[in-house]
Amino acid sequence: MTDAAQLLSLVSELLAAKPPATTDPVDFLKARFDAGLAWVHYPVGLGGLDAPRSLQPVVDAELAAAGAPDNDPRRIGIGLGMAAPTILKYGTEEQKRRFLRPLWVGGEVWCQLFSEPGAGSDLAALGTRAVRDGDTWVVDGQKVWTSSAHLARWAILIARTDPELPKHQGISYFICDMTDPGVEVRPLRQITGEAEFNEVFLTGVRIPDTHRLGEVGEGWKVAQTTLMNERVSIGGMRLPREGGMIGPVARTWRERPELRTHDLHQRLLTLWVEAEVARLTGERLRQQLVAGQPGPEGSGMKLAFARLNQEISGLEVELLDQEGLLYSDWTMRRPELVDFTGRDAGYRYLRSKGNSIEGGTSEVLLNIVAERVLGLPAEPRNDKDVAWKDLTR
User: Fold this and answer.
1) Residue 62: active-site member
2) Could you please report the per-residue DSSP string of 95-141?
3) Which residue of the set 116, 194, 230, 297 is catalytic?
4) Which of 219, 214, 132 is nearest to 169 (CA)?
5) Cα–Cα distance measured from residue 206 to residue 179, given in angstroms and rounded to the nearest whole number
């Protein structure tokens, strides 16, 4: 399936069989998945048609024009952007068929159990243990900064299965049922007043070996697929011109001429151009993905995303003058998604502070770009060949 006309014909058949105006949204999404129009580059039977990734926008645009429902991608972004590509690459056929359809339809929310209190930027130093007991693994430990854990049915989890090996080698990758006994989710209240993040405590959680992704001890390799896709999904999302954070600032500039100054004008012009460059670079990155898995270039996009969001939101607060100091609501709640553009300037300013931490800190991503994109010498490290149990903590 390589022809846009063929895809559009399939879209027409779907719309005729399941008219969006009269079909339950979930039923429509299931039918779309079964027709191979969910993610067209996936294999036949798994929501795709083995078609080029570049044809996905053709399908999306046609369905959107017909008023078809989407799967609320912001709510299930971790599943779509991180869990799904990892399951596709490393999962068994049984795992793919069990998890991908409900994941895409949005019936099962996913979260990511990676970071720990003592293993954030140095993720490979994680200490959560998974000990094999027959056909199951018993997991004990603590994870932190877990988005959507309070909503999630499933989690992608990395845990240490062999402390005798160096830290990158003794890790395995699992799918964890968040409803199992021993999983406790606690909210982490943020600077915004909300708790979209959580800490997760795992106490004697039993995970069947059939929920392991990849071989035992190869969890770090599997996790790299997740992390590279995460950075692309954060920094390389498809946006229209003036989409994202630059949109509200540009709109305020046009509608509130009394707020303008020469200095703010120059800064806005600079950031507008940089935002447009980042948007077009993200489009080029998505086109490169047609040829295969995302590479370290996604780290550069995520770096730009974090810096621009923080600079643009800072400019917006200054532009609004005294109004920029207002904050609408400090109510403690546990939201289902992060909405940068639908909230006020104060929220955008505070929430964007986390952009340089989540999805890989900017400092770590600078190292990745330096070493894997530019080919600069790696920083000297003396812990790569030391057993995890012997590391100083």
Assistant:
1) no
2) HHHHHHHHHHHTSS-EEEE--BTTBSSSGGG---EEEEETTEEEEEE
3) 230
4) 219
5) 11
Residue with tokens 């001890």: 217
In the chain, the amino acid numbered 355 is N
Write the single-letter amino acid at 204: G
Buried b (16+ CB within 10 A) or exposed e, 108-129: bbbbbbbbbeebbeebbbbbbb
Residue by residue, DSSP assigns 60-91 as HHHHHHTT-----TTTTHHIIIIIHHHHHHH-
Q: What is the pLDDT along the chain (393 residues), one digit of tens a residue?
A: 668 999 999 999 999 999 999 999 999 999 999 999 999 999 999 999 999 888 998 999 999 999 999 999 989 999 999 999 999 999 999 999 999 999 999 999 999 999 999 898 889 999 999 999 999 999 999 999 999 999 999 999 999 999 999 999 999 999 999 999 999 999 999 999 999 999 999 999 999 999 999 999 999 999 999 988 777 766 556 778 898 899 999 999 999 999 999 999 999 999 999 999 988 888 777 766 655 556 666 778 888 889 999 999 999 999 999 999 888 888 899 988 888 877 899 999 999 999 998 877 888 889 888 888 889 998 888 888 899 999 887
Separation of alpha carbons 268 and 57, rounded Å: 30
Helices (H) and strands (E) in the chain, counts: 12, 8
Q: Is the torsion defined by CA of 1, 75, 109, 87 positive or negative?
A: positive
pTM as predicted: 0.89
Which residue's entry shows tokens 């709640």?
333
**DSSP-assigned letters across all residues of 1-39:** ---HHHHHHHHHHHHHHS-TTTS-HHHHHHHHHHTT-SS
Here the tokens at position 357 are 């931490």
**Is the dihedral angle over the CA atoms 48, 49, 52, 57 positive or is it negative?**
negative
Longest pairwise C-alpha distance within the chain: 71
Q: Report the alpha-carbon distance of residue 107 to residue 134 in Å, rounded.
A: 31
